[in-house]
Design brief:
With 169 residues, this protein is mainly alpha-helical. The chain folds into two domains: 52 residues, lambda repressor-like DNA-binding domains (434 Repressor (Amino-terminal Domain), Orthogonal Bundle), CATH 1.10.260; 98 residues, no CATH class. Helices cover 47% and strands 8% of the residues. The chain is built from nine helices and four strands; from the N terminus they run ααααββαββαααα. A two-stranded antiparallel sheet has the order 1-2. Strands 3-4 form a two-stranded antiparallel ribbon.
Amino acid sequence: MADSLTGRLIESARLEAGLSGAELARRAGTSRPTLAAYEHGVKSPTLETATRLLAAAGFRLDAVPVPSFEVVVDGRGRPFTVPDRLPRLPIRQALARVRLPVHLNWSNPDRTYDLADRRQRHRLYEIVLREGTADDILAYVDGALLADAWPELVLPAPIRRAWERAAFR
C-alpha cells in the first residue's frame, strides 16, 4: 500500500476503478513508473497532476467540510455529542449492514442493523445520537438520511434541541 496520503488516494481510486497501473497511466498521459512512484510515496504529484490521475480513474478531488463536535450535558447530567454540521458518508457506508460496538448497543451486542432498511436505520440513529461519540457519529450517521428521518426519530428533548440548534441551522 502507498506511503503518502496522496499516493494512497490515487491507488485506492485506481483499484476501485478496476484499472491496472499501466491503464491508469495511459489514460492520464503519464508513465507507469511515475504513477508507481506517486502511489508508493516516492514522488509527490502536484495538485493538478493528482486531479488528472483521479479523473482518469473516474473520480474527482473534492473539499468536504469536516464537522467539529461539542459534548453537551442534559439536565440529568448525561453527556451527548453534537456536531456543528451534518456529516456525510459514502453511500456504501450509509446503507451498510453494521454491528454497533458494545458501548453503544450493550443491551443487544450481537444485533446487526441493515441501514438500507429505513426502520433499522432510524433505530440505529436514535442509539448513536443518544450514546455515541464524535467517532461513532462520523462512522454511522449520514446527514442527508438523518435530515429525512428527523421528524420520525424518538429522541429526548435536550438532544433534539441541541442537534436542531447546531446541525440543522
